[in-house]
Amino acid sequence: MQLTEPGSAPRPDGEVRLVALSARPTLPPRVRSLLEGVLALAGGLLERSLALTLNEHEQQLFKLAEKAHSSNEQHAVFESLREVKRGRADVAPRFMLFLESALAQLDGKPEAAASAPPRRFQELALVETRDLEEHIALQEISAKAEIRHSQALYALGHRFGVMAGAPALDAERLPLGPQQICAALRYATACLGIALEHRLLLYRQFDRVALAEAGALFSAVNDYLIEKRILPHLQLAPGRGSVATPPQSPANAANTPPPAGARPAPPRGASGSRTAQPEDTRDSELFHTLRELLAGRRQHLAPVPAAAGTLSSYVATGEDLQAVLGSLQARPAAPMILGGRVVQRNIAHLRQDLLNQLRQFTPDGRPPRLTEVDADTLDLVGMLFDFIAKDVRPTGATQSLLTKLQVPVLRVALRDKSFFTRRGHPARQLLNAIAETGQYWIDETEGEADRVLVEKMQLVVDRVSNEFDGRDELFDELLTDLSRHMGTLARKAEVSERRHVDAAKGRERLDIARERATQAVAARLQDKKVNRLVRSLLEQAWTDVLALTILRQGEESEVYRRRLGVVEQLVAGQETGSPALRHDIEQGLGQVGFHAEEVQEMLQQILGGGPPRDDSSATRTELALKLKSKTRLGEEPAAEAPPVASAIGGPAAGAAEAAAETAPLSAEERQMLERLKTLPYGTWFEFVLNQQGDTVRRKLSWFSTLTGRCLFVNQRGARTEERSMQQLARDLVRKQVRIVSEERESLIDRAWHAIVGTLRNFAGKPPAAQTDAG
């Protein structure tokens, strides 16, 4: 395969020769390793976007079928829909194979490019209208993406140029650029035999779902290459400026000194001892600004001059603090009992324990005192843990884990002030992972926590408490271990969620088919006098038989027409039915879960000889009641129904809401309903559970604009409830449910922003100041 011009990927029918990374022995080992890492990173993001695109495309095709003006148009849409369902499993593998081939052919050869004659004009050739329209559509999509993400692509071009040993690559030559992604999409979807207009619709949906957010992919790849020391100090001027660092090869990228004034990027896993590493000037300035804001807060809360006795106190050194904290770290962080309530220890308690321990080492019995820098560090760490505690259950497992991390985190912060300002600090990332995992995966307001996950997190925290001695490598190791475990859980959750979504879609299709079957039976029963047993059979069990037939064979099939004929014969009173009629009834009822004995009993009463068949027959009445009480096809028994998030007021309020389900929506509720229809799958909601304001997070995995049904799952992908979009709109207006805005920052980053904002308020500084902790 050759890297082709934008949007013009060759047709896959024997004309594309894909190359795997393993088939390129000429690639340097380091470059091969980097490309494999880039492929794995991009695969996780792009495959998910591709799945969302196909899901939305199926929904759009279904809507087009409903709005079709003719049966031929509807048939064409359903043909495309069947093709998408049939071939969607092949799309993602083909997509990734194309991208891998593009990465495998990253072999910049500037001398070949220089010797090639310039091409002023493209070669002319006859092009089919279909290919031309696809090419134009993909070209427009990729051009928009290049404009939208020009900065990230510019940086990516320089880094891929380093790996290729060539000048910076243009966006059209980037193996992961928008044009190659569009070419991969065209190659991947060529296995779907769908109409041109439906294919163009698929491209537009991919643009809206995937390429609009492709900046996250490009940023992630840039961050990955920075971690691997590929142009870590690349400086971009505003817009598309020049770089301050020339391209480097992977072999010497790590040995090139940073440009003047550039902020050095400390490697992950660096030693906790910073004596051999110069302190980051920008980190020092940010921490100094934090201290100034903290002093303003302290002055606002307690504007009292320092006591004179502090002059004779002993100022604890950094070594003293580390020694005392090391001994406190080895002790269990037992909770305290205040006012008859169990209270977890916080940084204020830790400060008191620290000062008490320091008294044993102070000379001449002088009281210990912390330096202003160390005191401010304790205050900032305390504010950080207080912010995290707001979203954590006080009696949950996460709170005890965070309490155990207080001493190690404080030791890191006292030794290395970049903990406050560097987002990639290993201790900061591990603290964030523990807090977010506990908040979203363990401390759920309802349900039991995952015992295996709790044990895993306890093991990680215990290792920090027992083994941390100032080395950051431990945080890196434990973070990698926890991330690998969480990745496994996330994949399991995705599989579980997909299974529930497929089941919900199947139930929707069954409901639609049952509605059509019900209408067909009702039309044939209209104004007809039929005894109770036959009516119950047709309206209950045989309606399910017809619905199942619609799903399997379709309404145009011979089987469906024959089973409709059964309805007409029974309604017409042909109760001495032929063997063919008896066979059709036996076969149909057997498919919807009736036992042979039950079927024969009904046939004896309907088709066989015996007493006159009228409603006075007790046996017939019992059979009719049994038919009505039998679980319908696709329905769940009441005991197995998923739990429903209760609104404020308990069961009585839930009954009132069920009664009000059919009430017309208000203007505000109708507006909210229209907004719900535009939300993407995967949007998170918070449901209020009780009058105390306890909430639980649920993800909207799927909804249907046809039936109005919504499916919610929890963090583990387990189905929690199904409710109507109308009821959800009512709850949103009543503030019993709220839409959770997408968090683009980590919990720790949000904590620092909130802390800085609070400190600015005390200091009287405007919020638009440029200070940013991390």
TrEMBL record:
Pfam families: DUF1631 (PF07793). It comes from the Bacteria. InterPro entries: DUF1631 (IPR012434). Residues 256-267 have a biased composition (Pro residues). Residues 244-255, 639-649 have a biased composition (Low complexity). Residues 239-283, 628-649 are annotated as: Disordered. This is DUF1631 domain-containing protein.
